[in-house]
């Protein structure tokens, strides 16, 4: 695992991960909001390599392996939004919280294992800075029959501004 001082952007390269274009909002909201030193990133879902969306219900039409692939993709899509908002993943000082919602049958109880696939991406990219508090739940349905959604709260690195010209 990478130390928390390592560059997340360099780690992306080492892992061979390419971030896609950020997903556009699909309603009257913005993908992320910065508040002080935190970035609140709204719900992200998984997409296949061809850009199509992972859909279906885990425990019915979607296998656990496919759901884990959707979770991994959702995390990568979320990172694309973070980079677009901050300019670089290196601005992230800590992934604070992840909330995962899995579209699943009433008898499916493996939501934590599915959302672990998203959490693993954050740890792979950020090292210890990617370890976070989390909640993973199952629901009867998601909009558009999405397999899952994840959202996150991130702390942003505090930067010391350079003094303005003429200031001492």
UniProtKB/TrEMBL annotation:
One Pfam family this sequence matches: YjgF_endoribonc
Domain Endoribonuclease L-PSP/chorismate mutase-like, residue spans: 9-142
Name used for this protein in its record: Unannotated protein
């Amino acid at each position: 695992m990478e130390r928390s001082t390592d560059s997340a952007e360099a780690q992306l390269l080492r892992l061979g991960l390419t971030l896609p274009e950020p997903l556009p909002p699909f309603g009257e909201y913005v993908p992320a909001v910065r508040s002080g030193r935190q970035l609140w990133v709204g719900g992200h879902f998984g997409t296949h390599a061809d850009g199509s969306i992972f859909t279906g219900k885990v425990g019915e039409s979607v296998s656990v392996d496919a759901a884990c692939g959707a979770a991994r993709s959702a995390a990568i899509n979320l990172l694309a939004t973070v980079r677009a908002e901050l300019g670089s993943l290196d601005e992230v000082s800590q992934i604070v919280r992840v909330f995962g919602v899995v579209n699943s049958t009433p008898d499916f109880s493996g939501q934590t294992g599915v959302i672990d696939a998203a959490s693993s991406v954050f740890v792979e990219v950020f090292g210890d800075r990617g370890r976070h508090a989390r909640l993973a739940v199952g629901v009867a349905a998601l909009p558009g029959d999405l397999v899952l959604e994840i959202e996150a709260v991130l702390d942003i690195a505090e930067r010391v501004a350079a003094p303005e010209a003429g200031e001492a």
